[in-house]
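Support request, priority: normal
Reporter: lab tech (M.K.)
Component: structure prediction queue

Hi team, I submitted a job for Membrane-associated proteins in eicosanoid and glutathione metabolism from Exidia glandulosa HHB12029 yesterday, and the status page still shows it as pending. I've pasted the exact input below so you can check whether something in the sequence is tripping the parser. The sequence length should be 158 residues. Please let me know if I need to resubmit or if it's stuck on your end.
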Amino acid sequence: MPATTLDLLDVPLSLFSIPVVWMVGFAPTRLRVKMFRDTIGWNNLEPRTNLERLEKDPKVDKAFLLRLVRLEGAHQNGLEALPLWASAVIAGNMVGMNNRTLNIYSALFVGGRVLFNYIYVAQKTKAHSYVRCVVWATTTGISLYMLVQSALIRLRSV
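Reply from support: The job had stalled in the queue. We restarted it manually and it finished. Here are the results:
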């Protein structure tokens, strides 16, 4: 009998979310490099000087420059979120947390990180920045909740 969507929730898939979250964190960098290549060219020999070169170019549109800065910010935030997320998923799996629970939280976290990146890069108003903060707090809360639940499961087993 073929697996249904509901059956997949019970399959141990949560560990796959770790490399997916890593890729989501690097997606803004890929876009940023492409934008550099399309304008002044990407200096791969000294990649951390690319933004400075662009800032010194008087022909560069300020909105374009700010978008590149936000792409870098989204990337950095993804790198900051990854260790907490990976720890939560690994801890949940180590203590035998229910696969369905792990998979649901993994899907919510990945979706939240994609949404975070989108809002971070596209934001234009202070209200957008507050929505971004809510999404960040929600995904961070998911990681912390899983870590606490893992600790409680472990405590109950001793």
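The longest helix spans residues 62-94. Helices lie at 5-8, 17-39, 50-56, 62-94, 99-122, 126-156. Let us know if anything else looks off. Ticket resolved.
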